[in-house]
Specification:
502 residues, mainly beta, Porin, 2 domains, 16-stranded antiparallel barrel, 22 strands, disordered N terminus
Length: 502
């Protein structure tokens, strides 16, 4: 706490001044030189001067805390035809970040404050790497030597740093709750609540934060023009972070109600959360709902362009989660279910929310996950968590008329109901996708070392894809598809790493 440093500095200054007069030796010259006259009248000014020589916050009214974490991993994959290990990646499951928190008490029940959270969001992250790119380029947000299309591999070329995850102020009343204004997570649909506080390091509630950037492969080793992220949940372990006004009630018998309205008022959400302990069982749960009508801003803003001014998306999402731990034994079970409806035919424009890029015919989609295991302090260093997991994500990459995953050689790319990455010149296109099912199962272990505020872990996940098309060959004989079924290889991923809190 930097505020503590200020208080200590102030106390040291006061003690030094007091020592001039109670030390038994008269020191008029020191008084004149150091305090410039009447010591008592100038004491505050002198304290301020001393504080100015130390690393400190901006004022003595608002407390300030600097916290954060460093989270780096080693990731190994096997996609059925190739295997490789990537070293030192940042983990998108829980990214490296630093946080500035400030607060000040206005009355005995009213507190005001702020939070700024900055995270790593580029270069070598677990969700962006692929079989061809161990750096995870982020595209147009980078300029200079690491411009779009460039590599971070050049000697001493630094990665982009400085994504603003949160930036908001808040005011809180002990009985009435908190109002937050700024960039923050919206109220709404949550994924699994990690009751252990550990296992989301290797195994988050999202299926695509660990290996979403890897490309699917076919039965002869061909690379499809689609990634695991195209058929997985849209990182839906938490609601979207946007500019908003959010209200969180005070806790009432363990229940907290939250609601938010975002940006121009075309995205809002609400949820109820619960946390408590009864009869030796620790329980956490949530139910949430979101409504999204926020258009994706086009590259060129033109008020006469119907694609910009026309009907907005109409996405509704609801979900629930429940986590339970038996405290005496450490046994736990947790999971969630989310459902997104894109309300065709009204979703006539794309939206970045909940993977809503399929346009008017995007199918409803769902995701669920169950995790279970045991957490105990067996070795005296801190809690050890052993877990297993199983889940599915259905139809995130599908549409009613058939969704296309094209390469740059495809005529009219990207076209309607299509996903196209121009850089994928040699990839096998997949067209007419009407159903996708992503199955995930895994296991792992996390060990906490409380004396070092560090968690070390190893986790394994296996992913399989079941993809259906509305044509026998899924758009091309090169896919190897028969009877509308796309042959795919599963992928295995092992991640090892550590998170260090500060």
């Amino acid at each position: 706490m930097i505020g503590g440093l200020l208080s200590n500095t102030s106390r040291l200054a006061i003690m030094a001044v007091a020592g001039l007069f109670v030390g038994g030796v008269a020191m008029p010259s020191a008084k004149a030189a150091d305090l410039g006259g009447d010591c008592c009248a100038d004491l505050e000014e002198r304290v301020a001067e001393l504080e100015a020589t130390t690393a400190r916050k901006g004022n003595r009214k608002m407390g300030l805390t600097i916290t954060g974490q460093v989270h780096r991993t080693v990731l190994w994959y096997d996609d059925g035809y190739s295997t490789k290990t990537y070293y030192g990646l940042d983990s998108t499951n829980s990214s490296s970040r630093f946080i500035f928190n400030g607060s000040a008490r206005v009355t005995p029940k009213v507190t005001m404050g702020f939070e700024i959270m900055i995270e790593i969001e580029a270069g070598g992250t677990s969700s962006k790497v692929s079989q061809f790119d161990e750096d995870g380029k982020v595209g147009a947000q980078i300029s200079g030597s690491a411009a779009p299309g460039a590599s971070f591999n050049a000697h001493n070329t630094d990665a982009y740093f400085g994504d603003a995850r949160r930036a908001a102020w808040w005011v809180e009343h002990a009985d009435l709750g908190r109002l937050t204004v700024g960039r923050w997570e919206s109220a709404g649909v949550l994924g699994t609540i990690d009751i252990t506080g550990q296992i989301f390091l290797p195994a988050s509630g999202s299926f695509i934060l660990l290996n979403g950037g890897f490309f699917l492969r076919g039965n002869t080793g061909q690379y499809y023009a689609m990634t695991w992220a195209n058929i997985g949940d849209p990182s839906s372990n938490n609601p979207g972070r946007t500019e908003l006004v959010r209200y969180d009630s005070a806790s009432y018998h363990g229940f907290i109600y939250s609601a938010s309205i975002n940006e121009a008022g075309d995205y809002w959400g609400t949820m109820i959360r619960y946390a408590g302990e009864h009869g030796g069982f620790r329980i956490a749960g949530t139910v949430g709902y979101e409504k999204v009508k926020d258009r994706a801003t086009p590259a060129t803003i033109d008020p006469t362009n119907v694609a910009f001014t026309g009907p907005a998306p109409d996405i509704t999402v609801w979900g629930a989660a429940l986590s339970v731990m038996h405290v005496p034994t450490g046994l736990f079970l947790q999971g969630h279910y989310n459902h997104a409806d894109f309300n065709s035919p009204f979703n006539v424009t794309s939206s970045g929310y909940w993977g809503g890029s399929g346009g008017a015919t995007q199918k409803p989609a769902e995701q669920w996950l169950i995790q279970g295991g045991i957490q105990k302090n067996w070795f005296g260093y801190g809690n050890t968590s052993v877990y297993g997991e199983y889940g599915k994500a259905n139809d995130w990459g599908a549409s009613d008329v058939g969704r296309n995953f094209n390469n740059s050689a495809t005529a009219g790319c990207p076209g309607a109901n299509s996903v196209c990455t121009p850089a994928l010149a040699g990839f096998t296109q997949v067209q007419g996708v009407t159903g996708t099912e992503l199955t995930v199962w895994g296991a792992g272990l996390v060990q906490n070392f409380s004396a070092a505020a560090t968690d070390i872990y190893v986790g394994y996940r296996h992913m399989d894809a079941d993809i259906t098309c509305n044509t026998a060959n899924c758009g091309s004989a090169a896919t190897g598809a028969t009877n509308g079924k796309l042959p795919t290889q599963g992928i295995d991923v092992i991640v090892m790493g550590a998170r260090v809190l500060f």
